[in-house]
Amino acid sequence: MKRCVRWLKPLPLRPRDTVQVVAPAGPFEQAPFEAGLRILSERYSPVVRPDIGASHRYLAGDDARRQEELSHAFLDRASRAIFCARGGYGSSRLLPELPIDKAGPVAFTGFSDLTSIHCALQALHRVSIHAPVLTQLGRQSTQVHDYFFRLLESAEAPPPLTGNATYVPGTAEGTLVGGNLSVFSRLLGTPYMPPLDGAVLLLEDVTERPYRIDRMWTHLRLAGVFSRVRGIVLGDFTACEEKDANYSSADVLRELARDAKLPCAAGFPIGHGAINYPVALGTHVRLDADAARLTFLEGAVSPG
């Protein structure tokens, strides 16, 4: 099914292009950040503010610092992409003043708490990349690195990804939206919710006990989300088990998915697990839940 609305894609990156590194959410440990920065520097030319390591309570500096840094990154026409240091919490605090409607075709990348910025971009019909943050990038395999760089540099559709479980059989085709379940659910009722009609919804999370996953999923159901999307892609739900319970988070998710009665496959290597493959939110995909396969029907970036 063709999309009626034209989505704005980032320009393709080239080796040695200037890219911005920002910390719009939580503070980070220096060692994993530097490991990720080394990998990024081997391919591109990152620009890092000297105060990126700031810390204010549970944030990477106060709102003014983070706002200025991220706003500059979005408005800098010399940069082709934005890479985030870490998730955590804090990016949603910046949404009302972010000039993303004035931003050029820059590739915004990140995941977890950065879901709030992804959703705000999708609300404006802009494509962005759900991908490792720098503190996670150093732990990823060369296969993930290569997939990431290919996604950013080639206008061709990337290879499909495969999950490990079918929760509800069927196929669904639509625009990929979503990200972290906890952050996504907090955007209900705000102007930053992406277009849901006919979409394929991606969800992942970390350290959320099964009853909390149930509560957030139920919030989405009560808000009518599952009556609007066409299918559900479940990434990693990392460290989401209840101690000494006779059920797993997968058991809870399987039951919730069956109640939603939408094609749903689980176990995709997307999120907080050991492997976090990047995917382009805002692009057209096909979910074959029977085969637990997510096929990308277009590339993440424009032809140039």
From TrEMBL:
- Domain called LD-carboxypeptidase C-terminal: residue spans: 173-287
Q: What is this protein called?
A: LD-carboxypeptidase
Active site: which residues? S112, E204, H272
GO MF entries: carboxypeptidase activity; serine-type peptidase activity
Asked if the keyword Protease belongs to this entry, the reply reads yes
Asked if Hydrolase is a keyword of the record, the answer is yes
GO biological process annotations for this chain's record?
proteolysis
Superkingdom: Bacteria
Alphabetized, the UniProt keywords read: Carboxypeptidase, Hydrolase, Protease, Serine protease
